[in-house]
Amino acid sequence: MITHPAVALKSGSGPYLTITFRLEEDFSTQRMPGRRVRRHFSQLREFERGLIICMKNASLSTRRVARQVDHSKCAVRTGWEQWTRDGTHVRRTGSEATRKTTRREDRRIVRQALADPTLTRSTIQSDVGVPVVTQTISRCLAEANLQSKRLFVYCL
């Protein structure tokens, strides 16, 4: 059984376990006495994820765990499913959008901008060979600490 550093499991009377945990914050000053405040949207902190795992390992129901950590049953269920599926309770990284250009195409964009500083984003865009927008060209150049040229129309 995996336990969290802030949680202590003790065998109680009979088949029950006593779960004690120390909170990192004092919630007593944040709410009115006798009134339960439900957070409408908040992500689970690492401490709360570990707490959920320990309580679920101690065979507590999802409803009871949700009441204890003051989160929804859905949040508790999602955290527990991630633990049973992936074996970890930390959040996943790298969920940003996929890139439209490869590293090779990015290097080509930078090379074109260095070779001819008068090129605009739209001319580089037409030479890339991949359907990209001008913001993609600007991003590639910004990652290489370069600036793109813009066409200016002067009224005479």
Short description:
The chain has helices at residues 46-57, 62-69, 73-86, 103-115, 121-128, 134-143, and strands at residues 7-11, 17-21. With 156 residues, the protein is mainly alpha-helical. Among the domains are: 46-86; 103-144.
Uncertain residue ranges? 23-29
**How many separate helices?**
6
State the major sheet. 2 strands, antiparallel
Query: Order of helices and strands, N to C?
Result: EEHHHHHH
What Rg do the Cα atoms give? 27 Å
Which structural class should the secondary elements be placed in?
A: mainly alpha
Helix content: 40-55%
**Distance N to C terminus:** 78 Å
- Portion in strands: 5-15%
Strand tally: 2
Strand order of the largest sheet: 1-2
Mean pLDDT: 75
General form: rod-shaped
Protein name: Transposase Tc1-like domain-containing protein
What does this structure look like?
It comes from Araneus ventricosus. This protein is mostly helical and 156 residues long. Helix content is 42%, strand content 6%. It has six helices and two strands. Strands 1-2 form a two-stranded antiparallel ribbon. α1 (46-57) packs antiparallel against α2 (62-69). Residues 23-29 have low confidence and may be disordered.
